[in-house]
Write a structure and sequence with these properties.
The chain is an alpha/beta fold and about 625 residues long. It has 3 domains: about 220 residues, no CATH class; about 190 residues, P-loop containing nucleotide triphosphate hydrolases (Rossmann fold), CATH 3.40.50; about 190 residues, no CATH class. It contains 19 helices and 24 strands. The strands form 6 sheets. A 6-stranded mixed beta sheet has the order 1-2-3-4-8-9, sandwiched between helices. It has a 6-stranded parallel beta sheet with strand order 12-11-13-14-10-15, sandwiched between helices. The N and C termini lie far apart (about 65 Å). The model has no long low-confidence stretch (mean pLDDT about 85). InterPro entries: AAA+_ATPase, P-loop_NTPase, SLFN_3-like_DNA/RNA_helicase. It comes from Planococcus antarcticus DSM 14505. This is ATP/GTP-binding protein. It holds the Pfam family SLFN-g3_helicase.
Amino acid sequence: MIIYNESSSKFINHVLEDRIESVLLEKVQEKMNHSVSASEIRSWTNSLPQMAKILRDADLKEGTHVLLEYKLPSTEKRIDFLITGEDKSGKQNAVIVELKQWQKSQLAEGDGIVRTFLGGRERETVHPSYQSLSYKRYLENFNEALYEDTSISVSSCAYLHNYIPNKLAEPLLNERYTSYVEQSPIYFQFDDLLLRKRINDAVSEGKGTEIARKIEEGRIRPSKKLVEAVNSLFEGNEEFILLDEQKVAYEKVLSIYNDMDLEIDQKHTILIKGGPGTGKSVIGLNLMNFLLGEEATIEYITPNQSFREILRKKLIGRSGFVEIRSLFKGSASYVETPENYYDVLVCDEAHRLKNQGHMKRKIEGENQATQIIRSSRVSVFFIDDEQVISNKDIGRFNLLKEEAEKQNSTVHVVELDSQFRCAGSGNYLEWLDNVLYDRKQDIQLDGDFDFQVVDSPHELYEKVVKEKGGRLLAGYAWEWNTKRVDGELSKDVVVEVHDFAMPWNDPARIDWAIHPEGSEQIGCIHTVQGLEMEYVGVIIGNDLTYNPETQSIEVKRENFKDKGARPAKPKGKYEVDLLDQLVRNTYKTLMTRGMKGCYVYCVDKDLEKGLTKNILNSFSN
């Protein structure tokens, strides 16, 4: 969606008449029906006049077109400024200009990452050249008008009109960013003449109206090049081989898709139920790979940002094709998507769906499940009601079924039973359920899964992190202080009796599970859900205790610190406390992240004694 598409002369007039902000506000209201933040309006006020000066002096013929706030389809990203036209040789061009109000920056770890002042504080973000280049590559790989009609050439650059570079050692020009700057040049405060020449060279002859129209109306679907890159990741890769029920579920979805008559307005919703480690993600990724090859419009949805980023990095790292990122979306991405815009949407970890996305425009009567089902002909949800870990999680089986039926979508149910995580030990899961949910059954723990109870968090760290290369996790029994102390993360997870303290995982490090820094931080439930590691060490806080008299697990509401996830306290004497189930679900999820083993340390000594005594038996013995 393009908010503003006008000739360059009209754009210049709107700026000179001090009308550009009001024009853009009117168009946003007209096309998107929502308000604009004060910071966004300030960016228009500060940046667009700078571009108007450059265009005014660039000697452009009538018909050169300016596109502002081009929302990249099926993303929340927008191109600030895009200009179209022909050069003196008659070649059709589109130039992306990423506008920044930055004044200084610093080097940061990570490919294409810098630090600068944003949103009231200093934070990590992508290099402007990387950002503008990624928008260019997105258009080239997802806009059919551009990859089918190769007569239009897209280029990109960044303009930091308030930024005076350090002549001795400018961070943004550091050699680590050279490849991005070479492909997408960066212009600073006194580089206006250079930018003016670049634009003149590309679009001076006008005739940009038709180019702009093609870009705006181009169908959004992955290019053949991108599809082939994804397919190459799956060929011969045993990690993605489908086994038993996985294969059955996969073929079920394909048969429903293949039997659909696309000329008839029909919808199907497939609910695939499976516990931890039943291979839900493997099925979903295989579906995406195959259906991309069938030229279906498909996206892969994960509500958990950390899980989404790990999937992206794994696949991008193997293919080198960064545009794969755009196939993976968050669950709040479909608020404004038209009916049946996609052929298929696959939603992993659907139990984490919310009523509305954070900071998103809200639509009365809709939730994220409603929006996903509405947006696609076939919607596939992978769910496990026992992994609901927050009062905000709505994606239970019954709700998804009801939402599908409201939209006249035919519902299909598939169940997965076989266990492919936890050393393939269904026995461990059965034993763990018996313990956590007090089922009082006679179940002995056996099999190949390495489960141990240790005496201290230091021992947990040594055995899991140092010896096994795993990660430490913890229940939400400690406050989370997001403010840094002298630039360091606050060590909030404290076990005083053992003089142990470590920080929660860095919120800015969404690849915590695979980043080296993650070994010195403790993962929370919101970070690790959906992920898997060879070994995990779980610190069970005092929100989960054991009562020797009743021989039962007990949840202590007063020790649960995740205020956003905590349901209201029961009012009636016999009313069930919903928090009880959420805390048990949290520890089940944490204790099933390991593929080979899980070691635990219990803050509550009675719980430690109970687990130690009964590792080979359930609590009921």
